[in-house]
Amino acid sequence: MHTSRISLLLSTALVAAFAAPAAFAQDAKAQQAPPQEPTQAPAQSAQDAEPAKKGWSELDADGNGSLNVGEAATLQSLAKAFAEADADGNGELTQEEYQAWLSSNGNKDVPKQ
Questions:
Q1: In the predicted model, what is the mean pLDDT of residues 18-38?
Q2: What is the 3-state secondary structure (H, E, C) of 43-98?
Q3: How many whole angstroms separate alpha carbon 4 and alpha carbon 66?
Q4: Shortest CA distance to 61 belongs to which of 51, 52, 72?
């Protein structure tokens, strides 16, 4: 009986010795793995999303200092006011024209310089 206890004890120690590294390896992998992000972002309606504030230079894609109709179209509020704000009607909206229009019509969604 004494021999069977020693055999059982040695067997248990051997199993534990071989199983321990595998258990620690799994734990280390779990800690190193970055959390998985969802593959799809929740859908937002256009009304829920806040418009991004863009500066004048970000809107001015060609870098000429004024905005044409296409450049202004990237900001809905500016696109709506473009024809009215383009004081000289040349199809190019300068910062001065836009600032003058804003002073007389309100100061909403102002592209910063």
A1: 59
A2: CCCCCCCCCCCCEHHHHCCCCCCEECHHHHCCCHHHHHHHHHHCCCCCCCEEHHHH
A3: 93
A4: 72
